[in-house]
Amino acid sequence: MKGFWSYFGIVYLLFFAIPFPMLLYYNTAYREMEYDGGTAPWLALTYLALAAILWILLIQRWLRKWVLMPFLMRKNILRLLKEGILKDARVIQSKELAATPEIITKDLLVSLRNFSGTEITERLTVNDSKPALRRYETGKTFSLRIDQQLKTIPYLVPDGVEVDLKIGRMILLFLVWLVVTAAVVWYFGFSYELENSGRGWRFLKFYHPLVLCPLIILLSAGGLRLLLNMMIGSPEKDLQLKYYGIRTDAAIISASQTGTYINEQPQIKFELSFQDNSGKTHVTSLKKIVSLLDLDSTKQVSVPIFYLKDKPTQVIFASDLETETKLS
């Protein structure tokens, strides 16, 4: 179900980013252009340059995500297998997701100690190419390689994992990328032939699809990232707290609504007080989107948190660190 909503969100975004602006333009603004003197030459060239830059940024991003990412991930995994820090992980739960004669895909919930010695849990998906060894059964312990800087994707892999590239899928994605790139180039030419009327690029406006479509896609992606950071925090910051943080209980001094709502769920500002491992008391605040069904949690006396030893005012609720990691 989660996958369905992810694809639905992508289709929904693309509709409002590409077909919708085109429908509006060619049914309204385009017809008005017939009676318009055209954009000033310098401004038209500015719009043309802006459109070219925006589309180049998008095409490069798609090339990296669709075609180059598997090579980058393979490179990162091979480096991680050589340089990553070894950590023992104990399987708490193991669930089979799919199986072939050669590979069994499993969803694992594992327990391990982070770089500060605090026990944490991690959820990950592994493709077990040696199921006869029963390495990922509940209660078993295996080794993980973790990137100490937490910068690579993925940032942890089972030690000794084998890395394969799905060549057929990569060729298909490369062909899709070529088709998309060709379509963008064709649309530049199509727009010019259809609308220039002997005036060159002076038909370009800020709301022309050549400019507006890539701008909407880029702004939507940035806005979604900002919204997720508001709702669940920065992934990079959360990883630092999870793998370098120390767990303790913090007293809730106060919990009040900020007036901000995300999807009709209120944002709560928590004032917290806790002692670090040296006995020093710290007071800090933390904002979090809280479900209406979970508002009773704001009335608790204390709550478990993670804090950084060198930056004790940076904290996160322990419950917010239950992230999902997928390995291929």
Keyword list:
328 residues, alpha+beta, OB fold (Dihydrolipoamide Acetyltransferase, E2P), 6-stranded mixed sheet, 5-stranded antiparallel sheet, 6 helices, 42% helix, extended, disordered N terminus, disordered C terminus
Short description:
The protein is α+β, with helices and mostly antiparallel strands. It contains six helices and eleven strands. α1 (2-17) runs antiparallel to α5 (209-232) and α3 (41-83) crosses α5 (209-232).
Question: How would you sum up this structure, described in words?
Answer:
The chain has helices at 2-17, 19-33, 41-83, 167-195, 209-232, 235-244, and strands spanning 85-99, 104-113, 119-128, 141-146, 156-158, 245-262, 265-275, 281-289, 302-308, 315-317, 324-326. The chain is of the alpha+beta class and 328 residues long. The strands form two sheets. A six-stranded mixed beta sheet has the order 5-4-1-2-3-11. It has a five-stranded antiparallel beta sheet with strand order 8-7-6-9-10. The two termini are 20 Å apart.
Helix-and-strand structural type: alpha+beta
Number of strands: 11
Residue-averaged pLDDT: 84
For the report, how would you describe the main beta sheet?
6 strands, mixed
Strands of the largest sheet, in order across it? 5-4-1-2-3-11
Please, how many helices? Answer: 6
Strand content is 25-35%
* Range of helix content: 40-55%
What would the principal axes of the Cα set say about the shape? extended
Radius of gyration: 26 Å
Helix and strand string, N-terminal first?
Answer: HHHEEEEEHHHEEEEEE
The stretches of 5 or more residues where confidence is low (pLDDT under 50) are 1-5, 324-328
Alpha-carbon distance between the two ends? 20 Å
